[in-house]
Amino acid sequence: MRIFGSFNRAGSLSSVLTRAAASDQITGTSALGGRIAGPGLRRAFSGVMKSAVTDRLTRRQARDPMPADEVIDRNWRVLVARSREMTGENDYGRGYLRLVRQNVVGSTGVRLQAQVRDTNRQSDTGANDAIEAAWARWGKRGNCSMDGRRSFHRLEMAVIQSCARDGEFFGRIHTGRHAGPWGFAVQVIDPLRVPIEVREDYLPGGGFIRHGIEFDAYGRPLFYLVRVGDREPADRVIGGRRLARIPADQMIHVFVEDIEGQKRGLPWTATALWRLQMTAGFEDAALVNARAGAAKGGYLEWEEGYGPEIDSEDLVDEDPLYFDAEAGVVQELTPGLRYKDANPTYPSGEFSTFLKAMLRGAASGLGVAYNNFAGDLEGVNFSSIRQGTLEEREYWKELQEWLIESFHQQVYERWLPWSLLSGRVTLENGQPLPAAKLDKFSAATWLPRRWAWIDPVKDVQAQLEARRGGLISTQQLIREAGRDPETVYREIAEDVRQMEAAGVPPEMIQAMFIKNVQAAVKPGAQTEGGENGEE
């Protein structure tokens, strides 16, 4: 018999009982059916699940696991409120949002790469260019958002920022005449408009409502209950709230699921909020104390036998004694009055050490490198910052893939049918792509932002060696740089055509694509400038 499925190397259960019995500290009759509660057996099993011990040191830790719905009910509103405050007022909180925006979305956003192929499995360049061009036109400001103020790049920013700050993003797809010039637009919805308190356990057909979302019996979202204004049509009124019942196929709900069965997102800053709040208070107190210590300040005291009586009524009416210190001026005091310096010594050497420790903990919970989060490169060498940067970039890549799957692909799969049916996707000759071939035109990949090499010479050389060794393709190298291989090839071909048209010698053109430029130029080659190119 084994306890908890396994036992340690010290031996079997019987050997443990034997050793414990030898100490005459076991009470009871049977290891299986009797009562064995002596201290010897307790010591024998001590340490097997030490983390489950409940005593005066651990009594504040959780003892009963909470399901996802209860975690959301208890914590969502408070965490969102504190996260919004922290990312709006705290420098480190605002810096974290900036890091997320810059590294997940970047300056150019996530780019579409259509992957349409013809019957011969060759790239259909015309269709790919038409789809990418139509997507780019729709993504301009004024077309893709209901308010007309955002481009698709700004929508991407709104999604990732809302998820980092509030834990989730809600958007609604609108189609028709009211949905902007394209007839297809995304409306950004504040998560607070989907009331977390609305809950119904039993609906006809076995469905239920949790956190403002109506599900079927299997947990698939059917409708979202969104709070509307007094002049907007409402489908339900619950607790004085006027709610619109929006079909799930019109909604986009983006969040990271931390617990199985979770139906609403929690702020990504959740675990760091308390530490950042305490750190902010610590900094404020240290700053005030440092300013007081830097300024000339002190106390005025009466010597024995001088000054007003303690119980005198004049103390109430008299103004407090004070004087302004001025550089180079010695103040003459009233007889019996003396000055005592007030020079607070805090903060001293421990301030920086403590602050770094707190920010390291917060950065770890947020998934970012401490040096980037705190803006602190003191004492950093190349190896350590390279390792930290590479690990952080893997986290950004993970978020990029999640964002593409949760937002970009969802929007694209709804945008493409509408655009094909409305004749918005056209070839260079003006002919629209047929909507009947939707499955063929749906093939697409996405190119998120990538980063510059940490050590460009060594990193690029390693990639080229891997390509020469057959471990990686040229297209993959280009994609890892955040570019579209077909676009790069066409640009290279255009470069070559323009250089040939300008009269650049073929040897020089070839030299640009091989390792050794000097080896590509034949000795004694004549150019228009004279021998060996010299005038």
A few lines on this structure:
With 535 residues, the chain is α+β, with helices and mostly antiparallel strands. It has helices at residues 13-22, 39-45, 68-89, 91-105, 125-138, 152-166, 273-294, 314-317, 350-366, 370-374, 382-421, 438-441, 456-468, 474-480, 485-501, 506-511, 517-520; strands at residues 111-114, 168-175, 184-189, 208-210, 213-215, 221-227, 236-238, 241-247, 251-255, 298-302, 337-341, 444-447, 526-527, 530-531.
Task: Give a description of the structure.
This protein has 535 residues and is α+β, with helices and mostly antiparallel strands. The protein has 3 domains: 64 residues, no CATH class; 332 residues, no CATH class; 44 residues, no CATH class. 41% of the residues lie in helices and 12% in strands. It contains 17 helices and 14 strands. The strands form 5 sheets. A 5-stranded antiparallel sheet has the order 4-5-6-8-7, with no helix packed on it. The longest helix has 40 residues.
